[in-house]
Amino acid sequence: MSSKDKEREERLAAALRENLRRRKSQGRQLRDRSTLIEDEPRFEEGMAILGGPDAALEWQRAVDLIDAAAAAGHPDAIARRAVFECRGVGRDSDWVRALDSLALAAEGGSEWAARQLLVLADGRFEPETPTAGPGCSWNDLRTRISLPQLMATPQPQALSTDPLIMAVPAIATAAECQWLIAAAGPRLQAAEVYQHGVDPGRTNRFAPFSFAHQDLISEVFRTRIAQALGAPQQCLEVSQVLHYAVGQEFVLHCDFLDPRALGEEIARNGQRIVTVLIYLNEDFEGGATSFPRLGIEHRGATGDALMFRNVDRAGQPDPRTQHAGSAPSSGEKWVFSQWVRNHEPS
Ligand SMILES: O=C(O)CCC(=O)C(=O)O
User: Fold this and answer.
1) What Rg, from alpha-carbon coordinates, does the chain have?
2) Where are the domains of the chain?
3) CA neighbor of 282 nearest in space, from 296, 299, 298
């Protein structure tokens, strides 16, 4: 056995021990131990592929491994399958099925699923071991979720009609915002600018929500955004959560891609026609999103969105949309950021 294989085996064994310890300590019904031992490596291997450098090439194998572990009853694999179900990964998108899986996973002992269910059904964010509530099961909680209500988006208010800039109040709940902050926090890294990597003009940090890090809350955000814009989900780039500490900023820039430099990229994956920001908190000073050429400075309350077109009515880059993420002067600023293309990747 190579040292890499040995390392992997040790990691899987440690994950298995930790998983068993956690479920035992929660006093939940343990499934047959031998079944768990069989499912755990499949789940861990699937997750390792999704989080690794070959995710784009090997995603189908990862999905098959996680699906197999889920079919055998592994609660965290069932929770992960819920993400595939709502996104339509290797199957048709089906939110009802995804929420049912989330409840099933929570009933089986997945804390990750239980915490998401609380956020979606009860508007409650619990960072530690959650309980459904007195006399209430996870399945009961699931029945409280109405899909039309969950995906509803409030009426936007125009801040500018040309270029179009819209404020959407309360597109997300406080609990959903807290969830995304908590999910992004441990993964923050230096933010980058398109094709240039880390840049002195963008000193804040960010966490991408790529395949391995998606959950039902980030998917609810994406679904609401796609619905509000009338855009197919496939036009949405990888979502990001941005974090600004005092003094950190994203200096003046435009979000459209320059057709002179990036013609091929635009032809293949589309132009970045819309930017959506969802403000995840409000307990900071300063930190507005500013459009100096339009005289607009905007700061949403927790859960509010700002949506703006980066191109003009003819679809051409609109330099008037130049904007900046200003630095907070006290506190920390958290924002969910979504760039949207004008067609699906080819
Ligand atoms: O954080 C902000 O207020 C602005 C973010 C931004 O400029 C962007 O995502 O393009």
Assistant:
1) 21
2) 3-147, 157-341
3) 299
70-115 residue pLDDT tens: 999 999 999 999 999 999 999 999 999 999 999 999 999 999 999 9
The dotted CATH code for 3-147 is 1.25.40
User: For 157-341, which CATH superfamily applies?
Assistant: q2cbj1_9rhob like domain (2.60.120.620)
What are the backbone dihedrals phi and psi of residue 61, each rounded to the nearest 5 degrees, phi first?
A: -65, -40
10 Å Cβ neighbour count for 312?
Answer: 16
- Rounded distance from Cα 201 to ligand 1 centre (Å): 12
Q: Tell me, letter by letter, the H, E, C secondary structure of 39-95.
A: HHHHHHHHHHHHHCCCHHHHHHHHHHHHHHHHHCCCHHHHHHHHHHHHHCCCCCCCH
How is 197-228 classified by DSSP, letter by letter? Answer: EE-TTB-SEEEE--GGG--HHHHHHHHHHHHH
Task: Give the model's pLDDT for residue 36.
Answer: 57
Give residue-wise pLDDT tens across range 278-309: 999 999 999 999 999 999 999 999 999 999 99
Q: pTM for the full model?
A: 0.88
**Distance between Cα 152 and ligand 1 center (Å):** 24
SS3 for 265?
helix
Q: b/e for 140-154, b at 16 or more Cβ within 10 A?
A: ebbeebeeeebeebe
Confidence of residue 129 (pLDDT cuts 50, 70, 90): confident
**Pocket, ligand 1, Cβ cutoff 6 A:** 242, 250, 255, 275, 277, 289, 323, 325, 335, 337
255 Cα nearest atom in ligand 1: 10
